[in-house]
Predict the structure.
Amino acid sequence: MSQYGTGALVENTSQGHGRANSPIVSFENVSKHYGSLKAVDGLNLELAAGQTVALLGPNGAGKSTSLDMLLALRKPTKGTIRMFGQDPYHAVKSGRVGAMLQSGGLMPEVTVRELVTLVTGFHPNPEPVDLTMKRAGVAGFADQRVDKLSGGQTQRVRFALAICGKSELIVLDEPTVAMDVETRRLFWASMKDEVAQGRTLLFATHYLEEADQAADRILVINRGRLLADGTPAEIKARAGAKRISFRLDNIDEPFLLGLPALVNVEIRNDVVQIQSDDSDRTLYALLDAGYRPRELEVGSLGLEQAFIAITEEDDRANGGTK
Amino acid sequence: MNGTLSLAKAEIIRLRRNKRYLLFTLALPVLLYMAFGRSTGRGYGVDFKAFYMVGMATLGGFSGVLTGNAQRISQEMKDGWIRQLRITPLPANAYVVSKILAALTSAIPVVLVVLLLGRFYGGVHLAAWQWIAVAVTIWFGSTIFAALAVAIGYKFQPDQVQALSVLLYLGFAFLGGLYFPLGGAWQKVGDALPTYAVVKISTDVIEGASVPAGLAIGLVIWLAVFAGLATLAVRSSAETL
């Protein structure tokens, strides 16, 4: 059961992620405590140039706090964060990172174009304003006042402000949270263009399908700690890899719980759902005992189930309250 | 610095677009002066029309700087605009600096308009150096309130700021003797206020009397106090923005 606890899983990951170059972002044993609450608790991670990395976790997992510290909005209680070999404040002021925060607001009483032009002017290496507005999909309402926009439009303006400089790293905290499905699709399409230009992207999300589709590396965090680090496929594979479901009469619960390689069992009437590390062993043991289950299905866990399994395992290991 | 200046410019553009701001800072003192500026009588040793010119110019200057900025800063803190600016390459102090620059600039028109009104509507006649001394005193005395606005805006929620800035506005305006010269016990309170110092320095200049050094020093002390409060408020908010 402990195979996706903290240590082992995190350790054998970062290989194959372009370790040759020095990392552009590193967290070294970073913690942020608010009184007795450990919002971030000993976080270690490194990002290499060109990656698209999703920071995935439930609400309150420490995603925003981690990004706030990376962007020099908060100071770690312990540990060191480096970005482009600098401390976060100077890295942000050098214009090498563009960011979009969940809690970032906009200046009212000016038009979208005025605002994008203003913030573009802050950058040492600005992108052309018209290009930024086109990429962010705000050109259509460029002359509207910022305080008269819809939630989705506001979010796109924030995105425009994140990409208006030639930044090497883009940091996005829950970027699509106020967007409808269509806007979200457009957003990720334009995001892919940014990444294709060699930019590194770090985004926090609790939308699993988003992490699955957009990221080539997923960091799962819960309770301020890194629980898993790998490609979407690796994360899925690590979380009690397989799902077995079947119908069975006269269920013998203690027997089912004693099956080998078992991670989790759910029984509802005559329907049994099993998560297993090794579906073959689990299934053969069941058959060897003389059971003949009906409507047998064996499949992979989706990312969502993998994610739930990983975080639940962590919650159980930590005494359970969520 | 360029970024800070362009932010200050944007702040001024925003102020110009804000009708409520224009109404209270520009229209109110102008209308009051039109209504009462030609009254006879005296205030603080000069003709009422000269006293009232000084009072209304100060009222317009300091009220715009104080109430407009405090409210906006508080709202922009709540909305996350200050956070947004902090993740741009703009230096950390740029927001406060640009607010103060915008305040220094935006206080100029109302001071000039009311002084012109005093000259051509009220019939106040002064030597050129007196006009300049009065204008600079009122302008400087008004703009020290930018620091107080920063302190309040960073420290309090928008709805609290609303109430607080009205209270401060009324206190500094009435007790400072901007609407009418005070007397008796009230004057004792008013003596200590920066708004009173502005009016008294100006009327002394108009009267041709020597300006007591204590008044000028008092203004500088108020500036130091406001700036200190602003620094504390900004520092203490660094982690909670």
Observations:
- Chain B is about 80% helix and 0% strand.
- Residues 2-236 of chain B form one domain.
- The mean pLDDT of chain B is 92.
- The interface with chain A takes residues 2-3, 6-7, 10, 13-14, 17-18, 76, 78-84, 86-92, 239, 241 of chain B (CB under 8 Å).
